[in-house]
Amino acid sequence: MAFIGFAILIAVGMALVISSDAGQLIGLTQDQTGQMIPLILVLILVASGMFGRRIKFSQMLSGIALWVGFFAVVVTGYSYRYELGNISQKVWSELTPGIAVVDENSQIARFRKGFGHTFYIGSQINGAKISMIFDTGASAVVLTHADAIAAGININKLRYTIRVQTANGTGKAAGVTLDEINVGGIIRHNIRAFIAEQGALETSLLGMSFLQTLEAYTVSKDSLELHG
Fold first, then answer.
1. Residue of 178, 211, 171, 206 lying closest to 192 (CA atoms)
2. Rounded to whole angstroms, how far apart are CA atoms 202 and 180?
3. How many CA atoms lie within 13 A of 221 on its CB side?
4. Could you give the CA distance from residue 67 to residue 78 in angstroms, rounded to a whole number?
5. Which of 206, 183, 203, 201 is nearest to 192 (CA)?
6. Rounded to 5 degrees, what are φ and ψ at 36?
7. DSSP state of 75
8. Are strands 141-143 and 101-103 parallel, antiparallel or unpaired?
9. Cα–Cα separations (whole angstroms), residue 179 to 31, 106, 151, 173
10. What pLDDT, in 10s, does the model give residues 144-160?
11. pLDDT less than 50: residues of the chain
12. At residue 175, what are phi and psi to the nearest 5 degrees?
């Protein structure tokens, strides 16, 4: 019971520390200092359990050291949460090159170069998830036959009268207008595009009809940035 009373006194003391904003002495804001109270109370309860069960002093020290270490990791992680978030985004972008790392403040979508020294772009066209290749040599967005079907385009009404150059040689495509295309949170409507005839194209292309709507796009050795 005495230990519980001691815990209450500590909690009251912490409340006074928060109200006086004393946490600034160790670089914590008032909100951050307040968030420490639950962790400290957990440590107190664990310690009280140790005393109640008459645990050896050496075991008690080990338990306290474990919880202090855990508390230090939590506080450090919280203090560097933004830096850790940026690191995790970079690691994720390396493992999944087609996934955009989006900077919401600057409206920039970043992509890492994939295998084969190609920028693969994860996009949504008319709500359908479609993988594309960044291609400034394409005058417009070009969709494969299968991707056009996934995007809800009625291919039965298309007329393949436009000659296009693809990796497989010269082929034919049909002109369409895409209702919506979303690339890394950058959304555009009514984008001119081509639908390649079946077998003429292996992967859809993110071409100039979309890219020219951007404020800018920059390409470095391993990184592509699309500025919305």
1. 178
2. 22
3. 0
4. 16
5. 206
6. -75, -25
7. H
8. unpaired
9. 45, 25, 10, 18
10. 999 999 999 999 989 99
11. 1-3, 18, 21-27, 89, 93
12. -85, 135
The span from the CA of 75 to the CA of 32, in Å, is: 9
With 0-12 / 13-18 / 19 or more C-beta atoms within 10 angstroms meaning exposed / middle / buried, residue 83 is exposed
Distance CA 94, CA 87 (A): 11
CB 125 within 8 A of CB 147: yes
Q: What percent of the chain has pLDDT over 70?
A: 54
Determine the pLDDT at residue 1.
47
Length of the chain: 228
Q: What is the 3-state secondary structure (H, E, C) of 203-220?
A: CEEECHHHHCCCCEEEEC
Model pLDDT for residues 44-89, shown as the tens digit of each residue: 655 555 555 555 556 656 666 676 666 666 666 555 555 555 555 4
Q: How far apart are CA 144 and CA 150, in angstroms?
A: 10
Q: DSSP state, 29?
A: -
